[in-house]
Amino acid sequence: MVTVPLGSRSYPIYIGKDLLRNAGKYFLRHRIGRSLVIITDSNVARRHLDVFTRSVEAKHYAVRTIILPPGEKLKSIGSIEKIFSQLLRWNIERSATIVALGGGVIGDLAGFVAATYQRGIGFVQVPTTLLAQVDSSVGGKVGINHPLAKNMIGAFYQPAFVLADTSVLRTLPKRELICGLGEVVKYGIILDRKFFEFIERNVGKVLSGDQKILQHVIQRCCELKAYVVEHDEKEQNLRAILNYGHTIGHALEQSGDYGFLKHGEAILYGMIAETHVAFDLKMISLKEKDRIEQLIQKIPIPSLSPLKLKYAGLIAAMKKDKKVKDGSIRMPLPIKIGKVTLPMTITDQSIRHSIEYVKIFGV
Ligand SMILES: NC(=O)c1ccc[n+]([C@@H]2O[C@H](COP(=O)([O-])OP(=O)(O)OC[C@H]3O[C@@H](n4cnc5c(N)ncnc54)[C@H](O)[C@@H]3O)[C@@H](O)[C@H]2O)c1
Predict the structure, then answer these.
(1) pLDDT tens profile 6-27
(2) Rounded CA separation 306/355 (Å)
(3) Whole-number mean pLDDT of the chain?
(4) In which element (H, E) is residue 181 found?
(5) Bridge-partner residues for 340, per DSSP?
(6) Looking at the annotation, which residues are catalytic?
């Protein structure tokens, strides 16, 4: 278990095997009210909804379920309106609790519903992807996309607890495991050299879904994220280091219209590009940069060549990033494995060099 220490809003992240089967026990332990609304997507519902529902119903919870189509497009204003309408038709009261059963898309969407329905109702995260277990379910960022930019509408809203069941990762497609691994590698580079070395040694085992290794990986990432969130819940300074790889990564993701590269894959390329920015500025040694690249090269991700990357379009996308200040692009940069800076202003020229570099890298 890992605790996210936020005073009276502190909460635990339970990590382990077969937690879904025993979910009811955790709801009772946290004195969650009797009415639950599970929000999930059809892929997760098909595989894991029954086990979860049976376990909470056995503890006499009244359960209603909203099953949505999978995919990033779900994080929209339209989905929010449909969910609110359903909650109102069911007369869901303020004492109810929203349960996000799914990946980061469901967690962000359901969390935003919980934060805003009747000005905030109970919320529990049950993440089912590696990305959600190591990152998105922890720290309280919830929200949706606007057609003009990603993650621009949202709130900070912490759950009562997080239930990260490693067994559910057995049904996760390999490509989704890779996306989660992108965020895992990020934690090593920004905060923990020893953990980076652990990933170097065990990347194959993570990709083959080794439960013991995954459990350690999830535990360590949650500890690192909890540390960051404890010191800067609302991203005034330190929390911005978690955006390493994301400025250029989001622009790459957008250039494929969110269909070609998945979020985690784009972040892996983003980390290569942003490390190159640091190298260009003589902030990181060649040896450290090579070591980061060698680890990322062990992870199978699609080639960038079909994307036909246009420099101007990428820069325009980066200028919509939430770290932009007075029109300047800013990003945290690694200075060695295990240590990054806070976001710094970066010239367009450095970004151009790094995009040229990542294009060749991703051939
Ligand atoms: N809030 C945050 O702090 C934060 C941090 C990082 C990312 N995010 C957000 O997270 C989202 C990406 O999350 P994601 O990668 O989990 O994507 P996702 O939620 O779309 O899940 C990926 C796919 O896996 C399927 N799936 C989920 N669990 C499964 C399981 N156990 N077995 C089989 N299939 C399963 C889903 O149906 C979906 O098709 C993005 O919207 C991103 O912006 C948020």
Answers:
(1) 999 999 999 999 999 999 999 9
(2) 15
(3) 94
(4) helix 174-191
(5) 334
(6) 119, 141, 183, 225, 235, 239, 243, 246, 250, 263
- Report whether residue 139 contacts ligand 1, using a CB cutoff of 6 Å: yes
Distance between CA 256 and CA 304 in Å, rounded? 10
> Quick one: CATH architecture of 2-171?
3-Layer(aba) Sandwich (3.40)
Domain with CATH 1.20.1090.10 in the chain: 174-361
Model pTM score:
0.95
CB-ligand 1 contact for 176 (6 Å cutoff): yes
Tell me which residue has tokens 């994301």. 246
pLDDT of residue 363: 62
End-to-end, the C-alpha distance of the chain in Å comes to 41
Atom number in ligand 1 closest to CA 41: 37
CATH architecture assignment, domain 174-361:
Up-down Bundle (1.20)
Round the CA-based radius of gyration of the chain to a whole number and report it: 20
Summarize the chain as % helix, strand, coil (round to 5).
55, 20, 30
Which atom of ligand 1 lies closest to the CA of 108? 1
- Reported as a single tens digit per residue, the pLDDT across 208-242 is 999 999 999 999 999 999 999 999 999 989 999 99
Which of 74, 134, 64 lies closest to 99, judged by CA?
64
Residues 258-301 pLDDT 10s: 678 888 999 999 999 999 999 999 999 999 999 999 999 999 99
d(CA 7, CA 229): 12
For residue 328, what is the DSSP state? Answer: B
Which pLDDT tens digit goes with each residue over 171-206?
Answer: 999 999 999 999 999 999 999 999 999 999 999 999
Domain(s) of CATH 3.40.50.1970: residues in the chain = 2-171
Task: Report residue 310's pLDDT band, with 50, 70 and 90 as the boundaries.
Answer: confident
What secondary structure does DSSP assign to 77-128, as a single string?
HHHHHHHHHHHHHTT--TT-EEEEEESHHHHHHHHHHHHHGGG--EEEEEE-
Q: Please identify which residue in the block is written with the tokens 């494995």.
A: 337
- Tokens 């204003």, residue located: 77
What is the rounded CA–CA span in Å between residue 97 and residue 278? 44
What is the per-residue pLDDT for 316? Answer: 86
State if residue 105 touches ligand 1 by the CB under 6 angstroms criterion.
yes
